[in-house]
Amino acid sequence: MAHVRRAAVAGTWYPDNPARLVKELDAHLAEVDVVPDATPRALVAPHAGLMYSGPVAAYAYHAARRARPAVIVLVGPSHFIPFEGVSIWPDGEWQTPLGPIAVDEDLASRIKALSQTIVEMPAAHGREHSLEMQLPFLAHLLPGVSIVPMVMGRQTHATSFALGGAIARAVRESGREALLIASSDLSHYEDARVAARLDGVVLDRVGAMDAHGLMRALEREPRHACGGGPMVAVLVAPWQ
């Protein structure tokens, strides 16, 4: 039987009324004042409540409209369930106020088959908001595009790079255009001076396309980001 993942934070973290949700999404998108100069292969987008993350996420998803992918690979951190490896949602659909988004069973199966670190652990997705907060923008801007949802437990070097390698090989073998999205906020609860330092390291390493450097920074000081491992995975995958 196909799995249906029901929305966990609709009506609290973002509106569950479709018209109101679209209005809020469009308001954030209307504030984007940067025209992308390239078609993205991978994005980093935040996952706080829409009123907080929406203005930033809108920049990422404004760029995503240029991609026109056949499938979207989502990787986020697990906030509630500690475990080793990565939990993939293998089939079925994820519900949103704008309609269900289908899981790409073929690509999910390919990715899972390529690494023993990737398992099925539905409980890791139950309350998790890191992927769900990406779905309103995706349902609104890229309707009909299927997803492969994955959450990462312990964000180790081995897990992050194994996942990046599995994604890269699976997408290449599928012959399809994929957009990779890492769900991550940056530093939490720091004063402005400390946050600027921590966030600056992440921006510098991502801007340099330096997955290994980002991983080293995260290992020294995990406060840099809550989804650092997912960022590493999607940063390294397009170039493998």
How would you characterize the overall build of this protein?
The structure is a single chain. This protein is α/β, with parallel strands linked by helices and 240 residues long. 42% of the residues lie in helices and 15% in strands. The protein is built from 9 helices and 9 strands. It has a 6-stranded mixed sheet with strand order 2-9-3-8-4-7, with helices on both faces. A 3-stranded mixed sheet has the order 1-5-6, with no helix packed on it. Helix 6 (157-174) packs parallel to helix 9. The chain starts with a strand and ends with a helix.
Concise synopsis of the structure shown:
This protein is 42% helix and 15% strand. By secondary structure, the chain is of the alpha/beta class. The chain has a six-stranded mixed β-sheet with strand order 2-9-3-8-4-7, with helices on both faces. It has a three-stranded mixed β-sheet with strand order 1-5-6, with no helix packed on it.
Rg calculated over all Cα atoms:
16 Å
What is the number of helices?
Answer: 9
Rounded mean pLDDT score: 94
Class inferred from helices and paired strands:
alpha/beta
Tertiary shape = globular
What order do the helices and strands come in, and which of them pair?
Layout: E1 4-5, H1 18-30, E2 42-45, H2 50-64, E3 71-77, E4 86-88, E5 93-94, E6 101-102, H3 105-113, E7 118-119, H4 123-126, H5 135-141, E8 146-152, H6 157-174, E9 178-183, H7 192-207, H8 211-220, H9 228-236
Parallel strand pairs: 1-5, 2-9, 3-8, 3-9, 4-7
Antiparallel strand pairs: 4-8, 5-6
Helix pairs in contact: 1-2, 3-6, 6-9, 7-8, 8-9
